[in-house]
User: What shape does this take?
Amino acid sequence: MKLNQLTLKESIDALDKKEVKIEEIYQAVDQACEAENSKLNIYLSTNKEALNQAKAASDKPLRGLPIAVKDNFCTVGLPTTASSKVLEGFMPTYESTVTKRLQVNGGIIYGKTNMDAWAHGSSTETSDFGRTLNPRNPEHLPGGSSGGSAAAIAADMSIAAIGSETAGSIRQPAAWCGVVGLKPSYGRVSRFGVVSMASSTDSPGPLTKTVEDACILLNSFAGPDEKDGTCNQEKAPDFTSFLGQSIKGMKIGVIYQDVREIGETNEKLLKELEILKELGAEVEIAQAMDPHHAIGVYTVVQRAEVSSNLARYDGIRYGNDRSHFGDESKRRIMLGTYTLTKGYADKYYNLAQKVRTLYLENYKELFSKYDVLVAPTSPSYAKKIGASFESAMFGELEDMLVEASSVSGLPGINVPFYHDQKTNLYLGANFIAPMWQEEKIIKIADAFEKNTKWNSWRNK
Assistant: This one.
């Protein structure tokens, strides 16, 4: 096995036992990137000092291992573009809280990964620097907006990665690339230094090879931050402490079984969930509020916040002028501004927020009966190249099954639950829990992963 194919936990253990050297791991990752990056277009920039920095971090929790970082996290010494030509060549003067903590804990930023420009999309096709391809099948998309980070894991071009989610942008590319993606509760991780998309739902989180890796990485940057007023000020738990625990007696509600568009995917998921019953969990069909309504809620709220957040990019204070915005950004700015205009805010924005509250109430009712809810992460397999240009609502439709939990601030995790050998593509299951209760989805996801055959690293 090549060293770039090691999981984060395997890498740490191998280094501790002196079975490998950090130089050898970097050499393997470098070779993978040299062979594949020009084709897959995963990294927009790489850290030339990564190995030197790694050697000085050997005694820290992450041991100097290479971590891929989505290009919307501000990083000193590396450009941050959010994959938009508005910020082409922009060098931040300060570090995001996530990447600063990552480095304090011995994680090395190997490179900045491609994404949908400004995180506007679910395909990584709206990037101003070219689309990223899915390493599992290059004729297909990796999803988005954290498509570059998910692809970096699927291609073994990093040991672990960081992304951000507004509504599906961690979990959906994780599903399409056959990797693990964990979206923490909103406010569990600081947003300071992350290029804002929709500030009321933006959530940084890990994209990794296993559930265990996600917990290890999340431990390195979760927790209170005085620089972010929306961040939970309570100390984050040790997420690895929830691994390997019994799920006997846990109640799992399977939602969205009545959504017509995902009938075949649902059938496969129900079959795979039988393993949880064998492990002692109770699994039953639950009735949840129709996810189709979440499309409108998310579209209106997100566009409104986009129009506000992108107003700062005027080419005067930094970056290039507004003529450099791509078509998708322009559409979102215009729609967001429209829904906030006097006379229309009540009709659209305020109504969307009321429906958002209905989702919160619906989840409250569901979690009075169930510990965890589960549904497919995405309606189907990764779409083919160019698919995102066929529909103005492509992203919202592909993220339909996760949008409600995102606008409600809930934690969720994607784990692979099926692999199609003909196309080499994966389907993902999304486990969600009440806010601040990540331990529940970690227990379930870890048990599912360890007792099924779908994780390509655990079962290599």
In short: Residues 345-366 form the longest helix (22 residues). The chain has a mean pLDDT of 97. The two ends are 9 Å apart (CA to CA).
